[in-house]
Amino acid sequence: MGFVMLRCALCLGVLLAGSVLGLTITSTGPSSIEKAGGETINFDCRFTLAPEDTGPLDIEWTLLASDNQNRDQMIITYSGDRVYDDYYATMKGRVHFNSPDPKTGDASINITKLLVSDTGTYLCKVKKAPGVNSRKILLTVMGKEL
């Protein structure tokens, strides 16, 4: 009987530990989007914080490598209350956070004047220790650039 009680207590502990929500990505938009060259895309990435998320806020947007021979490409970040958008020369001047203050819960970005070469999987990662969460969106840019 004691073993069964201990086992149930351990199972309950695991379930409760897994139920801590922490930082949550609340965006529910499409995970795959098609756009024409020259258009603008809005990648939605809204989040909420939990009381236990007390560390500094870091937001990273990355274009994931299409195969394991290439490196993922950081395109824009928010860290230490500053935006860093000069990581990827191809997108310089074309990528911006929607919100002037992303720490309000909006890590969404816009990319303007889309190029066929912008096609790929984009990852929004929001971190505020101990919370971490992310969202992937596949973009396909079709046709000729304007």
TrEMBL record:
PROSITE patterns: IG_LIKE (PS50835). Residues 38-140 form the Ig-like domain. Transmembrane segments: none annotated. Gene3D superfamilies: Immunoglobulins. Residues 1-22 form the signal peptide. The keyword Iron does not apply. Keywords: Cell adhesion, Cell membrane, Disulfide bond, Glycoprotein, Immunoglobulin domain, Membrane, Receptor, Repeat, Signal, Transmembrane, Transmembrane helix. It comes from the Eukaryota. It is found in: Cell membrane. It is a single-pass type I membrane protein. This is Coxsackievirus and adenovirus receptor-like protein isoform X1. InterPro entries: EJ_Adhesion_Regulator, Ig-like_dom, Ig-like_dom_sf, Ig-like_fold, Ig_sub, Ig_V-set. The keyword Repeat applies.
